[in-house]
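Dear colleague,

As promised, here are the two records you asked about, laid out in our usual form so they can be pasted straight into your sheet.

NAME FIELD: protein one
SEQUENCE, THEN STRUCTURE:
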Amino acid sequence: MMNGFEGHSWGMGMGWWWIIGLIIIVVVVWMLVKGLNQNNQSTNQRTGKTALDILKERYARGEIDKQKFEEQKKDLL
């Protein structure tokens, strides 16, 4: 009967494992997001396209009109 403390040690142990599990999940998600961002950045670096090149392509495909193209071009330059 340990002076009314029976079973309380399990509660503390479970609390610590829950926190450690949560930390592991956060770290895994962070690593996945970081890895995906690096893949996206390396893809842009390999193509060698600048923001202006991408803007020109969007205008050529008709995704944006001339006014929007000129506004964004002015922002870039």
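NAME FIELD: protein two
SEQUENCE, THEN STRUCTURE:
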Amino acid sequence: MRNLDLRGKADMLRLLGHPTRLAILAELSGGVKCVSDIQDLLDVPQSNVSQHLSALRRERIVDYHEDGKLRCYYITRPALVSALQEFLSGEYPEIRRSAESVRAEGRLREKKCPARPGRL
């Protein structure tokens, strides 16, 4: 992967790594909601909700339609949000390995890919 690709992905993870933004996305996964609905569901000040929605909107994860004075938000990247929710709901057990199995794997890789001069 190119360095720029990783930088962009890291930026996206930082954006999505805020608990309030995760909660907003969870609520919007259930359908379109207006700012006041989100505020009531999360018990967060309206200005705070609006700031988080603006950040999500800049990255084109959510957008809105105006209904009179109301801004009703929806998810524009449902596959991303679905994958995020699946990731967050998963369990990832730790796998411990013996020193011998790690050494054996290292020896196996050395046979398949000999080190090139100047590289580790």
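A couple of things worth noting about protein two: The first strand starts at residue 33 and ends at 34. The chain has a mean pLDDT of 88.

Best,
R.
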